[in-house]
Design brief:
There is one protein chain. By secondary structure, this protein is mainly α. It has 2 helices and no strands. It has helices spanning about 15-35, 50-60. The N and C termini lie far apart (about 45 Å).
Length: about 60
């Protein structure tokens, strides 16, 4: 396997603010799409173990007790 290429990236405050605004807008559109189409939607960070997230979603949706 070929080693990953490393690239250093520098972002100033304005770019970071724009990045966060774009992410927030994307998540809002995604949430709205799911709501309009009756799709369950759960947002989580990578700090939440996958198993905990799945169990929480299933319990909140009353799929398991």
């Amino acid at each position: 396997m070929k080693p990953a290429k490393v690239c250093e990236v520098t972002a100033n405050e304005a770019l970071l603010l724009r990045y966060h605004a774009e992410i927030d807008a994307f998540l809002a559109r995604l949430s709205e799409f799911c709501r309009k189409n009756g799709v369950s939607y759960a947002q989580a960070t990578t700090a939440v173990p996958f198993e905990d997230l799945v169990l929480r979603v299933l319990r909140d949706g009353r799929m398991i007790q």
